[in-house]
Specification:
Number of helices: 3
Radius of gyration: 15 Å
Structural class: mainly alpha
Distance between the termini: 8 Å
Number of domains: 1
Largest sheet: none
Number of strands: 0
């Protein structure tokens, strides 16, 4: 059980860091076309698509990464608490 908890929490953390990197890359248009940017886009888009469908359109500002980051934080805390009780 400890390995499963460790694995799930680290997967959530990797996705959170990928979202952070994606937000930072969005500020620099020239670097957003590389291989690393495509990998990060493909890793984070399924998560962000869920939150974009929930949120209303706000023009040029995308609040989906912020909401996803908070949701992943709660998921990480939930996994840790659930595994601690088992």
């Amino acid at each position: 059980m400890e390995f499963l908890s460790f694995f799930l929490i680290n997967v959530v953390r990797i996705v959170k860091y990928a979202i952070l990197v994606r937000v930072l890359l969005s500020w620099f248009q020239s670097s957003a076309n590389g291989t690393v940017a495509r990998i990060i886009f493909e890793m984070t888009e399924p998560v962000l698509k869920i939150f974009r469908s929930i949120l209303p359109r706000t023009g040029m500002i995308d609040f989906a990464p912020l909401l996803a980051f908070f949701a992943l934080d709660f998921l990480e805390i939930g996994i840790a608490n659930l595994m601690a009780k088992l």
